[in-house]
Every structure is written in C-alpha cells, then in structure tokens.
Design goal:
single chain, about 200 residues, alpha/beta, four-stranded parallel β-sheet, 4 strands, about 55% helix, elongated
C-alpha cells in the first residue's frame, strides 16, 4: 500500500532530544555562572523523569511540572537565590539550539519527499523551540507542516470549545486530516472514518 501522508514525531524519531537537552542545560547553567557536572545531569534526570511520571498519572499538570523541576533541582543542590521560573524559561529557549538530527533522518526525509510523500510533524514539544530545532537541522524543506500541542487549554483554544469532549489523539488527527483533505464542512468522526477507510496515512512515533 502506498502512503501519501506520513505523520512523524520529532524527538527520538527524527531529532536527538537527549543531545538537545544536555546542551540546553550546559548553556543555561553557564549563563548563570554555575558548573554543570554529570552528577548534576543525573540528578536533574531523576527529578525530571519522576515529575513526568506524576504528570502521566494525572497527579500534576504540565505547568506544575515545568515550574517544579528546577526548584527541586536547586533545592537538592543547596543552591539558593536562583529564579527557577526564569531559569526554566531560559532552558526552554536554549533547547531551540539543539538542532542535531538522528543519524540518517535527513536522508530519510529527502528520500520520502522525492517519492511524493507529504511529511508532517506531530509534537508535544513547545512550538518555538521545536521549529527552531527543526529549521537548524536541515529537515524543514522536506516537511509540509509542524503541529505542536502543549497544554490542554491551548489545545482546546486551538480546536474550539465544541471539541473538548474528544480524546487528545482524536483531536490531533482530526485537525490534521481536516487540513489534508480540505474538508472543513465535515465532522470530526466523518474525517476519521474517511481516513481509516482510505488508509492513505501512516504515523511514525
């Protein structure tokens, strides 16, 4: 079966997120005159991953996660006087400098584009840093568009209040399919049914 439309995740599918994360941490620590060591990285990973697991269990919100991780880190490091909200904003900005694609990602996108496939990125990363990372990677000439979905309230505003009862994944795919098939008059369920029956899109995650 030929797939005309390919939906791809960004991080760890096309882009090297661990490398982007490490350079952002090193850069942000250096900007604050702080030393970033392997032990600091290990501690950050432990805290960050624990918070993400809490988020996935519905125990905290994503804004709470972002507001907490560096506060916990500097508390553990006994480093007072850091504006952790500002530190997190700077870290997210510096994340945009992490433009390293995974091996063969560029060649893959070039080959798929040459075959006439339309490539779309679906990402839960912040839109600004993700677009900067992808632009610096050399991949964007081969991408049709990038869809970034972050916080639930942002998703609802993007789709409109009438869609708030739809599951997260259905919202993402329905918006994408509406764009691809130019079927704005269709309902979400009809779009998904049409896509499933045509079978002309594939998701890589």
């Amino acid at each position: 079966m030929r797939y005309d439309i390919l939906l791809l995740d960004a991080d760890e599918t096309l882009m090297d997120f661990p490398a982007a994360e490490r350079q952002a941490l090193r850069r942000t620590f250096a900007d604050h005159g702080l030393t970033f060591t392997q032990a600091t990285d290990d501690l950050y990973q432990q805290i960050n991953q624990s918070l993400w697991r809490q988020f996935e269990r519905g125990e905290i919100t994503r804004p709470q996660l972002l507001a907490t991780r560096f506060a916990k880190l500097f508390e553990e490091l006994a480093t007072p006087g850091i504006d952790t909200d500002a530190f997190n904003r700077e870290y997210l900005h510096n994340l945009g400098y992490g433009t390293q694609p995974l091996p063969h990602a560029l060649e893959l996108c070039q080959a798929l584009s040459a075959l006439g496939c339309r490539l779309y990125i679906l990402t839960n990363g912040l839109s600004g840093p993700q677009r900067r990372r992808l632009a610096g990677s050399g991949l964007t000439p081969y991408l049709s568009d990038i869809f970034a979905f972050i916080f639930l309230d942002e998703i609802l505003r993007f789709f409109g209040a009438s869609n708030e009862t739809l599951p997260y994944t259905v919202q993402v795919l329905a918006k994408f399919l509406r764009k691809c098939f130019s079927a704005k008059k269709w309902k979400m369920a009809e779009l998904l049914f049409y896509a499933q029956s045509c079978g002309n899109f594939l998701v890589f995650y």
